[in-house]
Design the sequence.
């Protein structure tokens, strides 16, 4: 895989710093909301990944590991903990009893609804700043491409 590194201007550094700041603000908000309900950010992310899987697909530990960018054994430990908290249910597949589908319990659905409503509100409040930082970065690259073509 080839890594492309763009030339950076002082404005690019400022825009990157602004974007990272906004992302950290959101992460800090999210962590506080999740902890207020007695969960970890990773547990919340797992519930959201399970709820948000595409229609027609079913969540497995392997898919969850991919979605959370963690190792399968870490996903298994996370699922075990969520199951102990009565937030997840597992069912074995008919084809292979070792493969299990994951489903949210009603308690998890309630928690996720509370968290997602608060997160969506916060994202909508932060959207102008996030979009501005992204637009600045995008525009700077576009300006650089236009200058190169002239």
Sequence:
């Amino acid at each position: 895989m080839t890594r492309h590194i763009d030339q950076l201007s002082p404005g690019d550094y400022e825009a990157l710093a602004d974007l990272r700041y906004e992302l950290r603000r959101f992460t800090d908000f999210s962590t506080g909301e999740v902890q207020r309900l007695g969960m970890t950010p990773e547990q919340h992310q797992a519930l959201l990944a399970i709820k948000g899987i595409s229609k027609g697909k079913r969540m497995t530990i392997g898919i969850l590991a991919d979605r959370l960018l963690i190792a399968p054994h870490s996903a298994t430990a996370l699922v075990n903990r969520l199951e102990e908290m009565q937030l997840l249910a597992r069912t074995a597949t008919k084809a292979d009893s070792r493969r299990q589908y994951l489903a949210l319990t009603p308690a998890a659905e309630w928690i996720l609804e509370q968290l997602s409503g608060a997160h969506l509100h916060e994202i909508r409040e932060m959207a102008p700043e996030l979009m501005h930082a992204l637009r600045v970065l995008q525009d700077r690259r576009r300006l650089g491409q236009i200058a190169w073509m002239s």
Remarks:
- The chain has a mean pLDDT of 90.
- The first strand starts at residue 59 and ends at 60.
- Residues 40-144 form a domain with the Arc Repressor Mutant, subunit A fold (CATH 1.10.10.10).
- The radius of gyration is 20 Å.
